[in-house]
UniProtKB/TrEMBL annotation:
It holds the Pfam family IspA. Plays a role in cell envelope biogenesis, maintenance of cell envelope integrity and membrane homeostasis. This is Inner membrane-spanning protein YciB. InterPro entries: YciB. GO terms for cellular component: plasma membrane. It comes from Pseudooceanicola antarcticus. Keywords: Cell inner membrane, Cell membrane, Membrane, Transmembrane, Transmembrane helix. The lineage of its organism: Bacteria, Pseudomonadati, Pseudomonadota, Alphaproteobacteria, Rhodobacterales. It is a multi-pass membrane protein. It comes from the Bacteria. Belongs to the YciB family. The chain crosses the membrane at residues 15-35, 47-72, 78-96, 108-130, 142-160, 172-190. It is found in: Cell inner membrane.
Amino acid sequence: MKESPVAEPKKISPALKMSLELGPVLLFFVAYLLLKDRVFTIGGREYEAFILVTAGFIPVILASTIALWRLTGKLSKMQVVTAVLVVVFGGLSVYFNDERFFKMKPTMIYLLFGGALGLGLLRGQSWLQLVMEEAMPLKQEGWMILTRRLCFFFLALAVLNEIIWRGFSTETWVSFKTFGLTIAVFGFFITQAKLFETYAIQDDDTPEA
């Protein structure tokens, strides 16, 4: 009995992919800036702009995640976990009218992924390699080094998010979440260029007869 072939991921333009991934966050940022000084009364209960923008962010992130899945045929584990945590912590913020739940979401995301990578390292494995090997073919030693660095980086971001949302204004946190975290992640991978160069797996030419 023949096995059914595994469907290959569909390719979409990088600009569209980036728009779907970063668009919801930018919309959240713009909506908050436009409404931040307003208070809304709904059903006899007052809601600050942050809560209303959070409520709107939930369906937007779900729509963009579903669109990515339909267009590419797959989702990364981080995309799935992020969407779930947005629904859970965003929903808690709206239900309890308490912005703290949503502000803790990045902390939970980075703790989950940092903890998962750390657990894999304790078992002598790079779980990062399992999800990124096709995108970045590296030697085993390179994967272990990158995984250790990314584990500590995620845990540092979790701590930083706690410091920002607990010690600074909501507007500062929104800016940090929109731009600071994104720049930090891009910056991390840029600084790993030497590692990628050192441990990259080169395509060997077929030996001559």
